[in-house]
Design brief:
single chain, alpha+beta, Arc Repressor Mutant, subunit A, Alpha-Beta Plaits, 2 domains, 6 helices, about 15% strand
């Protein structure tokens, strides 16, 4: 088991406030050299404890959210579901659960129409092996203020990572959905991100 000492915890805390703070500034704050900070930071990153990344403020972009609780029929179906949706650009949280439902997903969408299509047409709840699912449209998260939204630059896929075919989807054809951000069908001009 990996243990963080007090200085490691302080480094993580400082970076949570400002991920762009200079290493030398962290060193001064902790009374250690920038080389020592780099060494500690490398250790923490190499142990997969920390990843420094850009987070997005969903309130400013007026993103919409839904939480999905679902129950799949067996362990293999759950593993297939987790693997299938790991590259979905709209899923910001997906985890197995031990409860009446055996997974939870939180999805983000560019607007209300897209969110409704994501949770009704191209949704986890329509995945093979799902016995039941409940969808809750939620407010924009208050905590945390910034979240890890996947920003997709390469929009070249014919089909979405989950297997949906945006180009043939009736909601897409009728302009009720802007498509999956991973596909060549994504209507980027209508999105804020």
């Amino acid at each position: 088991m990996v243990k963080l000492d007090d200085k490691d915890v302080k480094i993580v805390n400082i970076l949570q406030d400002d991920g762009r703070i200079p290493i030398s500034s962290i060193g001064k704050m902790l009374g250690i050299s920038h080389v020592a900070v780099l060494r500690r930071l490398k250790k923490i990153k190499d142990e997969n404890i920390l990843k420094i990344s850009a987070l997005i403020n969903p309130r400013v972009l007026e993103l919409r959210f839904a939480t999905i609780f679902g129950d799949v029929q067996d362990y293999d179906s759950l593993q297939t579901l987790l693997k299938t949706f790991e590259k979905c650009p709209r899923i910001i949280f997906l985890a197995p659960m031990v409860a009446g439902y055996n997974f939870i997903a939180i999805v983000a969408a560019e607007n209300q129409d897209v969110l409704e299509n994501v949770v009704s047409i191209c949704a986890i709840r329509n995945f093979k092996g799902i016995r039941r699912a409940e969808v809750y449209i939620t407010s924009t998260p208050t905590i945390p203020k910034y979240i890890p939204i996947k920003v997709v630059l390469e929009r070249s896929l014919e089909d979405a990572p989950c297997g949906m075919k945006c180009g043939r989807c009736i909601a897409y054809i009728e302009d009720k959905c802007i498509g999956c951000p991973s596909t060549k069908y994504y209507k980027r001009g209508e999105a804020k991100l």
